[in-house]
Protein 1
Amino acid sequence: MLHPASLLVVLVLAAASLEACCVNPFIHTDTDVAPDAPGSAARETGGTLEESRPAVQLGDRGIDAPGSGFDIRLLRVQPGVHLGTEQVCDVVAVGRLEPLELGAQEAPRTAYGPGITHRMSIQCTSTTGESWADLAFDVTRAARASEVQVGTRIRVRLARADGGFFDYPIVDFVAVVGPAPGRPSSEPSRSSGTALPAAFDLRAVQTDPGLVGSSQQCAVSHVGDIDILDAGDARRRNYPAGVQNRMTIRCRHAAGEAWADLVFMPVQARAALDVRRGQTIPVTIVARGGGFYDYPVLQYAGN
């Protein structure tokens, strides 16, 4: 029979062993995926997440009027304006319809509203912008999911700015409106063969701390998705207080390109829709690192 003191030692060792074997290795770990890493949203969708053009909206013509559909990115840069409203999406890409089963999906089941039973990824286009969304169906509308096809215009209710698959905004299916209007021929070209300008070499901040706080020009060669930030995101990063949105960009210089984390204050957020490849934008250098993927942090400095 074990002495009480020996038994106590055994119990302590067993508890320590149990704790070591069962601890979640991802707690307190930055699990952000690099933009071009296998399994990232950009790789899985063939680079279609690149936000390369600004948004043009329907304006006073009415929700079902001919013309441009709604740019879902507005839900992230102006969430207080658009959450809960109904808008039209002109569909240019459709994913697989999937049932929502607790614990079986990447996005938490609780991110969706009550009664939602199915979801699919869709891409919506406006005259000058494209954006992805997570289209949710309740039990009464799931049977109509097959009607959501490329080339159709649908009406959706804007439910959440993020939280869907790939952290897409969540939009609830309302109805199929009909065929989507044709894309205008004046749509800007995305040709990768277009010559790009060069501007400030962002690598210089690593050897010259005095550049922090300075204003520079970034010649944009890549634009990632627009993210909406919460307080937790802001605390983890070297962001100025009050930041609302961010995106991953590349700045072209004479010798190549450099990655950066571009952030926007609420009053600047609408300008995030206008940042596109081939544009030269004014930025303020906020930090030499500490952004997403530990990139330098730049703040948009335009009007």
Protein 2
Amino acid sequence: MKYLDIIDEKKQKKIIIGVVIVLFIVGLGLVIFLGMSGKNNENKNDIVYTSEKTVNESKENKKALTPEMEDLKSKVEQDEAGYGNNYLKFEYCKNVYKRKPDRIYFKDPSKDGFFVFEKDDEDFEHLLEVTEDRMAYTTMEDYNLYAFTPDSINTMMKSKDTYIIFDYDNKNLAEGDAEYNKDIIFRFNQNTRLYRLVTYLSYFKELITRENLGKDEFANNTNTTGFRYMMYGDIMD
């Protein structure tokens, strides 16, 4: 019996040693795996950070500012600091201005084409609120809404006036449908915060010529007054 007990004791020691070795190997493998996983995550984070940094740098450096644009940038910053955040909403023509535009076009009389700001552009929302603010003040000063006369594109190309256009994708909507929003054409003065801002932002945009605009007209009816266009549907003209 004593001999058998000795054999059993040796077997138990071997089993214990074997289990310890297995646990050590498993633990060591787990440590190595977690270490490599953590390192991979760090590398991924570094890649994401580097990518974002590259994008930001490319935005900042996409076009060097001329001395003229540096001066304009300074004026825009002064405008922003002095005006604060009390922007007026354009609510006078609610039956026509129902929703935000899908894009904003800018026509400078000194340029032979248009600049476009899509709604996913980083400066779109701010340009929109500054434009609405200017529109709101214009309706207080211009009761006949002459500034909203829906000029044709050819007229805009020849005009010495400055325009901003709210352009809409109406898709399958027909004029008269509740969700339909016709394009809004707004003529405004160059001696304004809006002009300085949109001129500065346009510096980073490509000019779109009349031929490449992809639109025959903005307004469906260019033979009406600004008042009728903004206060009534074109069907009534």
Protein 3
Amino acid sequence: MKHILFLITLIVHLPSLFSQELSETIQKSNTPRTKLEIQKLSNDSKLLLRAQKTVEAAKLAEKIFELSPLSPESNYIQGQIYFVKKDYHSAIMEFNKAIDKQENHEPSLFMMGLSHFKLNLWRQSLKFFEKACIHSSYNPYYRYNLTLAYYLTGNFDKAKIEAEKTIELKENYYKVKVLLLKSLIKLNQKQEAYKLAHSMYEKNIELESILTHYANLQIDLYSNYKTAIDILKKKKSLSPIDRRLLAISYMETGNYSTAISNYKILLGSNFNLDEDSSNYLKCLVLSGRKNDAEKLLKNLIQESPHLRTYFIDIMNNLLEGKELFESHYSPL
């Protein structure tokens, strides 16, 4: 009977005992000394992780857990360890545990977004980057990643807004200026894009990232083909888009031989367009290389029989134009 009474008493008081133990744990975790020690261990772990010392960082995470099981820092560090190892799925699980302990733990929110981002789950990363920016609204690096996620998911309006906010926080953050430039172009705000590109060009900012866009805007807005050529000559390596812009610019300035050289390279790649082929034909005809133009026409028809009429019409129009040009009157 005594045993039964003891069990009943234990059952009645068990919840209060657990509650008291939890309360003591919370109080211990919230002492200034404990918080300071956890912060120091967390800072030390960052230095270790930058040096790829994951085993040592894991030991610090264990120490934090012993000091305060309720602190999100131990799970945050474990998540970073998995992130360094490129095990992003496991990292997400640990960051999620940290967020469960403290829903506004902005480092975990940001790393949760970054882990999804690394898995190319850009839409999933957005909500975490957004929350991280809410809880750390003055962090330009968080906002840059949010800008990038908006851009990659096709939300160019929001990408533009976030890029501008980031620049307000860190005016010399040039990478985000590139994103702003790209967003303006996607939004067809070409005059604004041109002003930004021109400013960056004049200051030698992120040239390799903006030269193609700047040259394209010169052509698109002002037909400045010579300027576009000068701009693209500064590129260390030429992409197919650069080749196309150069070829068009040389063609429009009457330098058909150089245009032909660029079109040859472009047509030898897998990035050529029908427009490139027709322009190549035009350059051959206008430079007087009729035989080469006919050979090209034959190859184009063999490669794309469904475009036979399209290319033949272009060739006939070019030859007619060439013939009419040669019949012009000149007093000298």
